[in-house]
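Re: the multi-chain job from yesterday

Posting the exact lines I submitted so nobody has to dig through the queue logs.
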Amino acid sequence: MSQISETKNEKSSEISRFLSFFKNLGIKIKNGFLKFGNRFKDGSIGTKLSHLIMGSGNLYHKQIAKGLIFLVLQIAFLFIFITSPEVNSTPLGFKSIINFITLGTEEGDIFNPTDNSMLMLLFGVIVFGLIGLFLAAYSSNIKSSYKADLDKRKGKKPTTFKQDIELLLDERFHIAMLTPAIIGILIFTILPTIFMILIAFTNFDSQHPAGQVLFDWVGLKNFADIFSGTGEISVRFGPVLGWTLVWAFFATSTNYIGGILLALLINKKGIKLKKLWRTVFILTIALPQFISLLAMRNLLSEYGPINAMLLELGLTDAPISFLSNAESAWTARITIIVINIWIGVPYTMLMTSGILMNVPTELYEAAQIDGATKKQAFFNITIPYILFVTTPYLITSFIGNITSFNVIYLLTGGGPGVPGYKAGETDLLVTWLYKLTIDESEYNIGSVIAILTFIITASATLISYRRSKSFKEEDAFQ
Amino acid sequence: MKKLLLSMALAMVVLFTAAGCGGKAPLTIWVGSESEAFYTAKMEEYKALYLETTGEEFPHEVAVKGVDTGTAASTFLDDTEAGADIFTVAHDNLGRLIAGSSSVAPVQSQALLDQIQNENPASFLEVIKGNVNGTEYTFGIPYVAQSLVLYYNKAFITETEAQTWEGILQAAIDNDKQALSLAGTDGFNNSFILLATEAETGDTSLKLYENGVQENCFGTGDDTIAKLKWGQNFFNHSNGAKAPTDSGWEVELKDKISISFIGGAWHYSAAKAALGDDLGITILPTFTIDATEAYGDAVSGTVYQSGTFADTKAFFMKKGSAYQEYLEDILLFLTSKDVQEESFEQVQNLPAYKNAADEFAAFQEDTLDAQLAAAQVRMFEFGIPQPFGFSSKFNTYYYSKGAPELILEILENPDGDLTTHEAILAQMQNVESLWKTGLQPE
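And the result, structure tokens for all chains:
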């Protein structure tokens, strides 16, 4: 009973944490607007003017360089926004916001290009990003002027540009260093992610190649197609998702348990040549994974050494297809799980070996004094310690296996095939996504699968990690 | 000071990165990886000719890049702005290249149009044209031809036996081998049965997007069902054809597990490596249906000639290329008869030029290269170009919606439920539906 009520309490506290996040966000936004209003009311004429013309507050306070930088930023932004310069025949600026909504209207002909819906979508996202950056600069311009106001009121001289630079290279050095990294993340991670998510709401597919045929917003149709219709996405999504979860569970658990057992065995007192055994197993890590996988595929192929051996020993009278041509889907699935053990166990073994060597000896000594047997010490100290330290690894490993591409792609290519569909019996969501996008140009469906994969992996990570002792009792083993 | 230096270094990295994004790209030509060196040399020759003709240096930098021609169309369509000004792909990609308002430019130079018209087989002329906004244009400039041929192991199969599948099967039985290996499960590799024609008359009831019409597909004729039944028997015979394995056809040929293989010119090097001096090359064999295979109008004893997709690789021009004014003249040179002949001699590209077999000296030599060329040319008599250039849908419906797997299922009959002619007919009705609509009937 107490366990049930504990679980209920956990759930309600998670929900309240979730709700308080949005509440706090609301408060922050409200406070932001209040501060904005207060600065306008309380600020000097320069600060008031900088609400309209960026940098005027700084110029008013004789911070010429800073003021000019803000002014140039505003002029540059307005210039791009109003003139909407074209890149690859597609406009940026305010026109890209209109294009973002329409995704193009101009159907070209043999001599004139069709509006490039893909670039319009992309430029729309970029311009929204630029607007966000401009608003940040705009806010910074007002804050900077208001700070100069306050400095003056306190009898201090407003900081010069040189002082600002010095500050940036000293106290605020972290900002100088992090800014390019943040810009990089914005350009190379956030922007493509948003772009990819938006594609899921369009009909950008093989029948709508960018720059040749216009594509359009279709709302949630692509998501709805998973649950209805007779297309590949509706028929094969369930089986592929099911196998992805089964694969992730077995690939993770077999490697984890196998690795721990191997580490315990190698670290057992009395085992000789421990370093040699560790080295032998680490050799599989030293080899590039794709070479190991291709070697395994050749070993297990119909006319490879393993089949030759089975035939020689009379255990079978015809070659067995273990991988992409296997008669049963489960033959291929079990084979790749077994191969994955060989590939993955050394990683867990290596990590667990390190953990085992660092279990505080005082714990064992105390247990010994209390009269604990070796078995009790193992189950009450060693195992909980390993589980505590390796839970985050276990979770990341599970997530990694959901998106594991190499093993499936190189061993079976998703096969055995399912007549009538691209997704084979061993395809994971991620390999199916690859086939749909790279081979078939079905970008919208690929994007839907990517979003769903993200939701599954993110949920699994958050839920399992927040429920783990590693999270709840962070300081327990320190 | 350290911090200042670090900041400056960071700023320079950002600046160099930004600078790297600019600059005008050279006139770029994508060719097959195996031909990169050849066409690079040819472009140097072209520049020399340009200087000779105009008295001026060719005004732009030219970059010839070797690419995987199988995926070049997809790569081009993924980002046409970054795509080559001239690129080569198989003609069946035309449909998606010209979808909507087209991403490739039509040929407008009369000299080039004349060269295309006068120097290519009639079957090629039909598949390099496409309709955009109601007007038909010529888009592709053929320069390479390709068809499937039979590679066989001369140690087990005589020249006479290689003429019929029955002969090859008997050789396989006598030597306890498999008669045939295939390279893949797709609709290209098993097309030799589907595209087979009656040997005496050349007739077939099979229709694949005839005249470029989506509904003009017919794969349920009596002869098609009988041919597939023959194929089923051939694949299910213990010494018959075998479906592709993880070991690969090269291993199967090399280890003498199978004694023949259907492939294109692109398989030649691997086949030669596998069989060495035992490699024989000939046209695809005939087969005769027996009483158990006969169905309706396709009577027992009818002989069928195995068929093939007989395709051309063509050059295409990017629409809106900054170098448009130079492209057609370059192509006039690169696809000329002389360059095609040199291309055959140096990199074994089978010429698209229609009289190559009679006029090119290298065809007359008694070499494997010449045998391969001759076999491919002969297979053009029993082949049709892949009829997928009319619309981007055709290629997708034929290859990507599962029809090849359904045909392979008939041939392999893994569960034994496709044994009867009626079951084969029912399965082919599904295939026909996929060809026409991309969907299986509900």
